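This protein record is not my work; I was only asked to verify it. Would you go through it and say whether the fold makes sense for this chain? Here is the record exactly as it was handed to me.
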Amino acid sequence: MSDGIPKTDVAAPPRHFLTPPTGRAIRLPPWFKVKQSAGENYLALRRILRDENLHTVCEEGQCPNRRECWEAKTATFMILGDICTRSCGFCAVGFGRPAAVDWGEPARLAAAVVRLGLRHAVITSVNRDELDDGGASLFVACIEQIRKQSACAVEILIPDFQGNRSALATVFSARPDLLVHNIETVPRLYPTVRPQAKYDRSLALLAASSAAGLPTKTGLMLGLGETTDEVRAVMSDLVAIGCDILTLGQYLQPTARHLPVDRFVAPDEFAALKRAGEAMGLRHVEAGPLVRSSYHAAEQVEAVNGVERHG
């Protein structure tokens, strides 16, 4: 079968991940080595996504780990379309006026999960600030449809819903196996990195998730100009509100229009931050240059001493 994808290993992500405002590509550090081989699981998942008219943040966000994760039968579905109502300085997802909500999407997503035999599915979305509940009800519909047809674990990566407590209560009621909301960066950088978000609002969301008894995860990107002390301060905040899992990864600039990379964080620094976070009280820290929120998602849950499912 020819799918137009070479079944070879590539040493590094495509150059366009790091295109500065000058238009010249930046040389990646030697520790960026990504296997890009396309196996049967990868090809099957890509084909089914097209059949069911589904989006993934793996593709829209230009994730360098896409082939590895798809080959391992994990995927991050992106519901509510591929147009976001926010324009964060780091994100490759399109910004503009979204289309109407597709209420047939949950059934198609569940069908894809069954066809692929996924053991762990991650569901995220664009921000839909124009909706009364920010799209919370569609998250619930997706969880319900999957659980009707499959034993697949369901992890949801949600936006902040503009602090709408009713919307949060809606998604909490569905008892996902893991609830994720990404802090993304340190408080000082929010005006530049996440101008339409608030650090305290995101922290309050994670606190509410933990208080509701849900296993809770968040993530930060490094290399946007933060200091190590600022990262440690965020980790301390996360421990204080009961967050279970933290992911730390290297920010990679998607296009010349996005924020530039301030620095490349070395693997030993990621390892030191992992040790520091777990010593503070985080139950698991996944840290490394290529780590993303959903990277090794199933293994992260298993690492937290067998987190119970809430189906």
Q: What stands out?
A: The longest helix spans residues 136-149. The mean pLDDT is 83. Strands lie at 55-56, 74-79, 83-84, 94-95, 120-125, 153-157, 178-180, 216-222, 245-250, 284-287.
